[in-house]
Amino acid sequence: MENKVIRNDKKPKNKAPENKKGTVSQATIRKTLTITVVIFTLILIASIALIFVVSKKIESRAGADAQIRLSAQGGFSCEYSEAQKLYPFGDGVIKVTSERIAYLNLSGNEIYSQFISYKNPQCVVFGDYVSVFDRDGYNFTVLNRDGVLFSKPTQNAVKSVQMSEKGFIAVISGGTDSFGDVSLFDNEGNQIAVWTSYNSGFPICCAFNSDSSLLAVSTINTSGAVIKPYVRVFSIAKNEKGYQCSDNAVYTTDDSVIFATICYVGNKLCCFTTNSLYEIKDNSLSRMNYDFSAISYVKNVNGNLFVTYSDGISQLSSLAIINSNDAIIYNSNIGTNIISVAQTKGFYAISVDRRIFIFNTSGVITNDYSIDEDIIRLNFISGNKLCVVSTNGVHTIN
């Protein structure tokens, strides 16, 4: 068969004219691809950062590491009315009533007791010491785990007390012809000094530094057209006759605020209002650039400040941790209803809703417990145990 060559004699369709700028188009494509890769990379980096931040924010709301039946932990059971009188301390609890102070071990057995007659007894634990005072009454008592150290009457009604790590105690009381008094005692009950406020206003709170060489007193003067806060600092020095107290410094600010809480971080004095922090810088009170809304608790944990705050009633509560360089190293929601907080040199515990979180000083949650009972109060006791007073008794968590 003869081979035939088939030809297509039809006129070809018009081709698209060749793009004389083809090289420019390729450059444009490469440029577009480069921009796309850069944008994708930036989005990926932002996403990773966002995941990291969000994970830190929600880790406190994640499931608890362990669920604990408090009734199964060490301790003893008691009625709710009895539990309200118990305060974790030492190797057990302090029981406070209007007639008696007793120190109990974790089995509920009494180690020692002291009879009192207080109409409105208040108990505050300060490390190795306990102070029980009659609020608006005229007596206070200081104890440690070995027994009662001293008990003292006061000339004016007691409003509050503050103790140092060495066992020094400052007692704030009312005054008949003044705004109030601050009485200073050493750890043996010897009165060192009494400061009476005539011009500075009502004494609100006190704070010792770590070696008990300084005592700061926050006062509020309401006699003028606006509220005027003052912070007075006193030096405490030992001499041949004992201890001597003298004026050290006075600080104030033009802001109309009340320093409801003050504390020392080393020798740095921190003063808290209901929503802000002031520090002594360059010999003056300076407001720090933090916004804490409504502050509820402030604790100094080995040089870091643990501050709990919320945006209002029934709002989520948050915990912020500020290091010694004034940088916030942790800030996260932790729950709604904060019940109690406690600290030791290396750890911080907070009871919120029906959870207990344990933080180390760096803001890392080392333990997270879900519990089955309502907590009244908690505190660290000997051996890094956490002693929890619940509505049904006393329990310990290692």
Give a concise summary.
With 398 residues, the protein is mainly beta.
Low-pLDDT runs: 1-23, 52-62
**Number of H- or I-type helical stretches:** 2
Spatial strand order of the main sheet? 1-30-29-28-27
Please compute the radius of gyration using only Cα atoms.
32 Å
**What proportion of the residues form beta strands (DSSP E)?**
over 45%
Which structural category fits the helices and strands?
A: mainly beta
Shape: globular
* Assembly form of the protein: single chain
Mean pLDDT: 87
**DSSP strand tally:** 33
What gap, in angstroms, lies between the N and C termini? 102 Å
User: What's the main sheet like?
Assistant: 5 strands, mixed
Residue share in helices?
A: 10-25%
Commentary on this structure:
With 398 residues, the protein is mainly beta. Helix content is 10%, strand content 52%. It has two helices and 33 strands. The strands form eight sheets. A five-stranded mixed sheet has the order 1-30-29-28-27, with no helix packed on it. It has a four-stranded antiparallel sheet with strand order 2-33-32-31. It has a four-stranded antiparallel sheet with strand order 3-4-5-6, with no helix packed on it. Strand 15 and strand 16 (214-221) form a beta hairpin. It starts with 21 loop residues before the first helix and ends with a strand. Mean pLDDT is 87; it is low at 1-23 and 52-62.
